[in-house]
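Field reference: sequence -> structure
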Amino acid sequence: MLCFRVRVIFYDRNVQGVAVAKNLAMSMDQRDFATRLAHRVAEAVKVDIDGRLVPFTKFVNATKRQVGKADPEVVTLSALRALVITSIYGKGGLSRSAETVHEDELPEGTTPEQVERAVVPLLSGLIARNAGHLLSRTALTSPAVLAGLGIAAHHTTAWADPSHAMSTDALDQLLADIRWEREARYWDGVAAKAGTSGRLNFSGGVKDSGGRVADALLYPATEPGRRIRGR
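Structure field:
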C-alpha cells in the first residue's frame, strides 16, 4: 500500500505538477536515520482496540502532511519523525525537522546503535502509555505537540545535558495532568491559534510552536504550563 501511495505522489509531482512538501519527502526517505527510527517506533507499539492488540502502524499515515477526520490514521509519519528528531537533539532538533538526519551527525559521543537502543523503547513506551489520547485525536496528534514532547523526552536520554536530566517516571509525572483536549482554553497561544469562531488551528508547525509546547510541558509553574493543565 505504501509503495502504491508513493507512486501516486510522484505521479502527481512529475505529471500533474503538484509539489511534494519537503518534510513529507523526508518522512518517505528510508535513507534518513530519523525516518527509519520513526518506523521502528511505530512497529514497536501495540494498542488495545476492543480487546485486540493492533499495531500502531495502522494509525500512522505515511503519505500526507496532515490526516483528515475521515482518515483511519490519527497521526502522520512526518509528525512521528519530528518526535524522533527532537528526542535525539532536544530543541536543536526543531531546525532539523525538514532536513535529512545522517548517522554521522548524531549527538557527540553517541553511535547510531546507541541512539536507536535508547530512542525506540523510550518513544514506543510514551506512545503506548498515551495511546488513548492519540487515538482520540487530541492535541497530542499535532506535529508541534509531538515535537515538544520529544524535546521533553530528550532530557531522559543518556546524552542530554546533565543539568536538565530527568527520569522517565519524572517525565510521566509532568504529563499526567496535561489537558490534551483540543480546546482553546488549554492550547491557544501554546500550540495553536483560536479563530474568531473559537475553532483552534494547529497548523503553526514544528518550528513555530514546538519550543513553546516543550516549555509548557517541562515547567508547570509558568503561565503556559498552567494553561495546558487547566489551572
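Note: The mean pLDDT is 88.
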